[in-house]
Amino acid sequence: MDLARYADLFLTESREHLAVMNRHLLVLERSPGARESLDATFRAVHTIKGMSATMGYEAVTALAHEMETVLDALRAGRLAVTASRIAVCLDVADALEGMVEGAVHGDDLARVSAPLVERLRSMAGDGEHADSPAPATAGGAAAAPLAPAAGASVPRARHVRVDIGRLDALTDLVGELIIARGRLMQEAALSNNPPLLEAAEHTTRLLDDLQHAVLQARMVPVSHIFDRFPRMVRDAARSLGKDVAFDMDGDDIEIDRSLLDELGDPIVHLLRNALDHGLEPAAERVTAGKPAEGHVTLCATRERSAVVVRVSDDGRGMDRAAIARRASELGMPRRGRGALGDTELLEIIARPGFSTATQVTEVSGRGVGIDAVLHRVRALGGTVEIASREGQGTTVTLRLPLTLAIVRALITRVRDEVYAIPLTHVSEALETDRSELRRTRGGEIMLHQGRRMPVLRLRELVHLPREAHDTEQVVMLEIGERRAGLIVDELTSQQDIVVKRFDAARDGGALFSGATILADGAPALIVDVGGLMRGQHHG
Amino acid sequence: MNHTVLVCDDAIFMRTLISDILSGSGYEVVGHAETGAQAVERFQQLRPDLVTMDIVMPDMGGIDAVKEITKIDPDARILMCSAMGQQALVVEAIQAGAKDFVVKPFQPARVLEAVARVLA
After folding, report:
1. Which of A47, A72, A75 to mutate to test the interface with B (most CBs of B within 10 A)?
2. Across residues A325-354, what is the average pLDDT?
3. Considering the domain A3-137, what is its CATH architecture?
4. Tens of pLDDT, residues A401-429
5. Which residues of A touch B32 (CB under 8 A)?
6. Average pLDDT score over chain A
7. CB A518 within 8 A of CB A497
């Protein structure tokens, strides 16, 4: 039989089992007596062995087999679980990771695995002599205890694997159907033909269900990428010689598959920054009255129709004065003379020119790669926020839409042009009396529920002459803690729109993130709420 | 009527492969299970003519699953699928009531032979 068509399945599933292996090996490193983790590691390597044997990947099979033998000796108590043994197992896991990829592409891998096979064999040989169990912390200070990952055993539902391309095709078709539906509904409404209208409405409801089902099928838990982070953090912390406790939360939160794939790199960047620049060396921490062990947290939560990912550290925070000084040295414009606010801080360190100034990133504690993070997240229609307190740590918050393909939007009009505003960032739409609006030196503001809120006019943003009305139509925008009002000529309707995304502009001056075709066939620009809020100056 | 089969293995890869081999030869794969406990539960529901059973699975291992299934039906036809180096476990499984075994890596012809033997 033709095994080649099973290669993808082999690869995907091997990666999953390797992630499971890594996770449990880390638990064992910390708690050598964790029987369940030992069993889970054994099962994972056993499964990899069986699969690779079936595929005919001999080098992978042989290495997995040797590891299984060692794990079996550990399980039977012939060998003690020690930090050094777990370290070898982690090396084997790394090698296997590369080898399964290589095997699928026909590489010869015995070369890679031979030294590890030897190490495993001599380790298994140890079990035949009396073995004096070394303490599990033999690795010394570098063996930083790491929090065990949540959800040690993940129950899996029955499922089939579908190529993401097919799901994309399905999503696109649903998108086209939604546009077609809009036209059908309009024609039906004009037809004065009740049975036709009824049929069209029925179609509408079914299509809503279909859209929901298709989008649901694209959702995967973030654990798909989170699973590899405990291992990565451990290795990075070790190579930096830092003691780090790492916690993850919310890895069962679901997000669109295509977004998830894009999210991995930015999170890696942020974790590395936190470890490298955020956390101080142990001695410095102790001097500052903090525990020697640094703390890094990664958590995911749902917030309305967005997924929020936060990376926090309890390190030194950013040195605002040094950053401000450096910004002025580089001739970067400042918004004001006072201390840097979090928003401006992010703006400055996100400048490509700034982030390459390594000398400063050591002082400032951050910078490298943050522009890449920002660029990537904004390209996905998301936003980035930073909150840093000197001496207490830094939190970076990423907000992403649940899905890229179809969003619900408020349709607005300014003169003859139609603009769509994704509801993700709309808290309400209202009419406000002219008297509620004030001009100030920092820009126009309005009073809303007793709060002063900055106001923007879409008319002016698209360079049309200002037009004042007695009552203004205001769309209240909200991203995290920040709010602003956007004045338009008219609120038309709410619609599901199929997003055709532009490439996000790097400088943050972009007004629009994409375009769409509305139900009546007319094109509309999609307002980039994140960009708008960034561009807006606080007095 | 085609013989019905329940395929038990914790790897989707293996379940897919075994299912493909069997359905390619006219067997009807009526269910999958990825843990021993699930295997027992599905057996109870589906009453298949044949069960293929992996030995190493989470939750409840294959051998315990064989014991549970033969309690439900002493005549259950179970084919063990083991990896190399598990001879002792295979013997235990046969004692527990499994009818035959095949060793991974699978040769489709061997699997089909064993299935035919068990169903004979």
Report:
1. A47
2. 74
3. Up-down Bundle (1.20)
4. 877 667 788 999 998 889 999 887 888 88
5. 158
6. 81
7. yes
Q: Which CATH class is domain A221-401?
A: alpha beta
pLDDT at B4 over 80: yes
Of A6, A49, A69, the CB nearest to B17: A6
pLDDT of residue A107: 78
Single-letter amino acid code for the residue at B44: Q
Q: Which residues of A223-235 are buried (b: 16+ CB within 10 A; e: fewer)?
A: bbbbbbbbbbbbe
* Structure tokens belonging to residue A455: 């106001």
pLDDT tens digits for range A88-140:
999 999 899 989 988 888 876 777 788 888 889 888 877 554 444 443 333 33
Classify domain A406-535 at the CATH class level: mainly beta
Inter-chain touch A54–B17, beta carbons under 8 Å: yes
Q: Please tell me if residue A35 touches chain B, with a CB cutoff of 8 Å.
A: no
Q: Where are the domains of chain A?
A: 3-137, 165-217, 221-401, 406-535
Which residue, among A2, A51, A58, would best test binding to B if mutated, counting the most B CBs under 10 Å from its CB?
A51
CB contact under 8 A, B83 and A54: no
Which architecture does CATH list for B4-119?
3-Layer(aba) Sandwich (3.40)
Domain ranges of chain B: 4-119
Side chain identity, residue A416: D
Return the beta strands (E) in A441-511 as ranges: 443-448, 451-457, 471-479, 482-488, 490-498, 500-501
The model's confidence at residue A148, banded by pLDDT at 50, 70 and 90, is very low
Which chain A residues are closer than 8 Å to B34 by Cβ? 156
